Automatic annotation (TrEMBL), chains A, B:
All residue ranges annotated as the Moybdenum cofactor oxidoreductase dimerisation domain in the record: 289-407
One Gene Ontology biological process: sulfur compound metabolic process
UniProt-listed Pfam families: Mo-co_dimer (PF03404), Oxidored_molyb (PF00174)
Top-level division of the source organism's lineage: Bacteria
Single GO molecular function: molybdopterin cofactor binding
Name of the protein in question: Sulfite dehydrogenase
Broad class of enzyme this protein falls into: oxidoreductase
Residues in coiled coil: none
All copies of domain Oxidoreductase molybdopterin-binding, residue ranges: 116-270
Stored SUPFAM superfamilies: E set domains, Oxidoreductase molybdopterin-binding domain
Co-factor requirement: Mo-molybdopterin
Lineage: Bacteria, Pseudomonadati, Pseudomonadota, Alphaproteobacteria, Rhodobacterales
Length: 423, 423
C-alpha cells in the first residue's frame, strides 16, 4: 500500500471498503454490509476535501450542533415557577465522572443572580474574636485546596417515594453534579476570625434574595468544607454561585450555599425555614427527622435507560452508570438484569474517590430478552444501597428527601426502557 | 442577633460593617477600611432585592460575562493561516487540574471539520487477519475505559528555544489541556481485527484534509492508547475531534489524531511528513532526532505571571502552577523566587496522577521585592526538569519541539511580570 505523506491512498480505501464488515466481540459478530461498498469509505468526503474552521473560530467553544439535546432540563409541573426550581443534569448522555459546568444541575430558591467580583463581600461574624469582611481578592490570598466532589440535591429521586414517576435517569437522578472544586478551606477563614469557645455551629447565607440560610455543625465546618471559587478549572458559573460558594463534601446540596455572603458562628442551630419546614424527612407518624445532611450511598444505571434505549440487536451491550456516597468512597457496585434476583459485580472505571462520583461499567451480552435493570452501590463503611421498599418500611411515604433506593429500568425487547418498581 | 428564616438581620449587617476589616494571615494583616462603612455591606443590594434567572434560562450554560477574557487565544504571526495553527489554553486564569473543553487548546493542520456520528467510519486494515470498519454505534458496544490525561503539543514552549519570547504562561505553556477521556482501548479493536505476527507498528490517520498521519509502535498501541469519544463527561467538541479521537497518554499531541478514520497495522513506520519534516528535533550539527514521542517532565508557574501580575502589596501570596510528565506521576515540584538559587518544595494539590496534570501551590510571604520565579518538576522516574540552558547544551538551538526547560518570570516591585531567562 502506497503512503503519501499527508494523504491516504484512495485505492487502499476502496479495497478495504469492499471488505468492510462490522465487527463485535465473538458471540455477537454481525456481518452487516459485507461486500456492499459504503460510500463513506469509497468516496472522498467533503470534510477531507475542504479545510475546516481556523483556531480563531471559537475563543470559547460550545458543543457541536449534533449534541444540542445534551442539555439541562426542568420539569414544569414540579414547581410553581422557574426561579425557585431545579433543572437536571443529562446524566443519561454523559460518561466518565466529571460533569461539564454547562449542563451541571442547578437549584435556585430565588433565581441565579449576577454578582461581580468587585462587588463581592464575605462576612464572618457572631461568636468570633474579630468580625471580618473579606473581598474576593482577599480570598485569593489564602492557601487553596482542590477536590472532586459530588453535589446532590436532597430531593434527588424525591418523586420516586410515590412509586415510579419520571421516565429517565436525567429526571429521577439528575439533581446532581460532580466537579473539581478549588477554594479556601473554611477552617482557615474561621481561624482568621477566631472562633470563641461557645461557638458550636455556623449559619451560612447566600447573597440572593432567598439567602437560603442553613446551620452546619462547627465540627464539619472545621473539617473539609471550603469556600470555592473555581469548578472544573474555571470560575464558577453564574448559576453555580459565582464568584464564591460553599462546598460541603458528601452533604446535601442545599448546604452548598451559592453567592456566599455571610458565615455566622453561633452557639446552636438557627432552625431556619430551610431546615424546619424544608429539608427534613417526615415519617409515617408525622414526626420529622432533621439534620439529615449526609447523602447515603446511591447509584443508578444511566444507560441504557428510558431516554437512551438500546438501538441495536442482541449481543454486546455496555451497561453503565454512576455511584456515590457521602460517607466516603464507593468500593463496589453490583448490577442485576433480573430485578435483583441475581447480581454481577460491575467494573469501576477508577478506584473510588471520597465523596465523588464513580463510574461503573458492566460489559453484558444481551440475549435480546426483557431485563429489569438495577444497580446497587456499596461504600467503604460497608453500607449497601437499599431497595425503595426497604426505605419505605422505615421512613413511610411522606418524605421528599433522601431517597437512595435501588432504581429499576424495565428494558423491553425492542430496546426501549421504562421506569418501574419491582416488589 | 435576630434570625428570621430566609432573611438576614439588617441591623446585624450594619454593626458588622462598622467593624469590617480585611483579614489575612498574621504577618500581613492589613487594616483596610477599618471604621469606614462599606455600602456593599450596609445597604441591601439589588441582587438581594430582586429574583435572578430561572432554571430554564440556560439549558447549556456559558461563563458569566465578567469572565469573557478567559478564552483561547492564537498568535497571528506564529503561523501563515489559522486553519493550520494553534490556539492556547488560558492556563494563567485557571486553577485545579481539569481544563474546561470550552477553552482547551486546539491545533489543526487543515481546520476543525464537522463530522456527524452517522457519517463516522473507523477502518482497521493492513497486517490484520480481517480488515474491519466500525461505525460510531459499534464503538459504543465495546468495553470502555476512563482516564484523565494531559495532551501537550510537542511545540509547546517551542518559541523559547531562541530566548524569552512570549509574554505570558498562556502563550509559553498553553499548548496543553488536561481532560477526563472515555473511550475504547485500541488494543480491543486491534484484537478484534487480529494483528498478524509481522505487524509491529500502526499508522493512524484523521478524516480531515490533512489526514495528519503518524506512526506508533505496536507496543504503545497495545498498552494504554484509546479511541476516545468523551472528554470531561460529554461528547468531544468539534475542535477536539468529534466524534472520536486517539488518546496516546504521555505522548506528544500530534499523535492524538482527531476525527480518527483509519488505523493501519504495518511492519515498519511510514515516515510520513508529520514525522520527518515535522515533529523531529534538529540538533546543532543538523542531524534530527526522530521518534521523540514522550513528553518529559515539565512545569510552569501559572500565576503570578505576565498576564496575571500581583495586584496587592507585600504579604501572603499564592504562587501556583501546573506540572506533568509523560513518564508517569509527578512526585515533587520545587519553586524558587530567586532564579534557581534556593528552592522550596511546593504543596501538590493531590497525589500525582499518571500522565495527567498536577496542580501545585506555594503559600509565600512576599516581601514586596523583585522575584525571579521558577518551578522545577520531578517525576516518578527521578527525572528532574532541566534548565533551558542545559537543554540547549545538548540539543542546540535549532529545535522547535520538546522544550521542557525551567521557565522564569521576573516579578517586579509593582507586581507586574515579564518573561526572562537567567543564565
Amino acid at each position: 500500500m502506497d503512503h503519501r505523506p499527508g494523504t491516504t491512498s484512495r485505492r487502499g480505501f476502496m479495497r478495504a471498503g469492499l471488505a468492510a464488515s462490522v465487527a463485535l466481540p465473538a458471540a455477537a459478530s454481525m456481518a452487516r454490509g459485507q461486500g456492499t461498498p459504503d460510500p463513506l469509505i469509497t468516496e472522498v468526503q467533503d470534510w477531507a476535501r475542504y479545510s475546516g474552521d481556523g483556531v480563531d473560530a471559537t475563543p470559547y467553544g460550545l458543543p457541536i450542533q449534533f449534541e444540542s439535546d445534551v442539555i439541562r432540563r426542568n420539569v414544569s409541573w414540579l414547581t410553581a415557577d422557574t426561579i425557585s426550581s431545579i433543572n437536571f443534569t443529562p446524566i443519561h448522555q454523559l460518561d466518565g465522572t466529571i460533569t461539564p459546568a454547562g449542563c451541571a444541575f442547578e437549584r435556585h430558591h430565588s433565581g441565579a443572580i449576577e454578582l461581580a467580583k468587585p462587588d463581592y463581600r464575605l462576612m464572618v461574624n457572631g461568636l468570633v474574636d474579630r468580625e471580618l469582611v473579606f473581598t474576593y481578592a482577599d480570598l485569593e490570598r489564602f492557601p487553596r485546596r482542590q477536590g472532586v466532589y459530588f453535589c446532590e440535591c436532597a430531593a434527588n429521586t424525591g418523586m420516586e417515594w410515590a412509586g415510579a414517576q419520571l421516565n429517565g435517569s436525567q429526571f429521577t437522578h439528575g439533581m446532581i453534579h460532580n466537579m473539581e472544586y478549588v477554594g479556601v478551606p473554611l477552617k482557615t477563614l474561621l481561624a482568621e476570625a477566631g472562633v470563641k469557645p461557645e461557638g458550636r455551629w455556623i449559619y451560612v447565607e447566600g447573597a440572593d434574595a432567598s439567602s437560603n440560610g442553613r446551620s452546619i455543625p462547627l465540627e464539619k465546618a472545621m473539617d473539609d468544607v471550603m469556600v470555592a471559587f473555581k469548578a472544573n478549572g474555571e470560575a464558577l458559573r453564574k448559576e453555580h454561585g459565582y464568584p464564591a460558594r460553599l462546598v460541603v463534601p458528601g452533604w446535601e446540596g442545599n448546604l452548598w450555599v451559592k453567592w456566599l455572603r455571610r458565615i455566622e458562628v453561633t452557639a446552636g442551630p438557627v432552625e431556619s425555614r430551610e431546615e424546619t419546614s424544608k429539608y427534613t424527612d417526615t415519617l409515617a407518624n408525622g414526626v420529622s427527622r432533621k439534620w439529615t445532611w449526609v447523602m447515603d450511598a446511591k447509584s443508578v444505571v444511566t444507560a441504557p435507560s428510558p431516554q437512551v434505549g438500546i438501538t441495536h440487536g442482541p449481543g454486546p451491550l455496555v451497561i453503565t452508570g454512576l455511584a456515590w456516597s457521602g460517607r466516603g468512597t464507593i468500593t463496589r457496585v453490583d448490577v442485576s438484569v433480573d430485578g435483583g434476583r441475581n447480581w454481577t459485580t460491575a467494573r469501576l472505571a477508577q478506584p473510588g474517590v471520597p465523596m465523588a462520583m464513580t463510574r461503573f461499567y458492566l460489559d453484558h451480552l444481551w440475549d435480546g430478552e426483557e431485563m429489569l435493570l438495577q444497580s446497587r452501590a456499596v461504600d467503604e463503611t460497608g453500607y449497601v444501597q437499599p431497595t425503595k421498599n426497604a426505605l419505605r418500611e422505615i421512613r413511610g411515604e411522606n418524605s421528599i428527601y433522601h431517597n437512595n433506593g435501588i432504581q429499576t429500568w424495565w428494558i423491553k425487547k425492542d430496546g426501549s426502557a421504562e421506569n418501574v418498581e419491582v416488589s
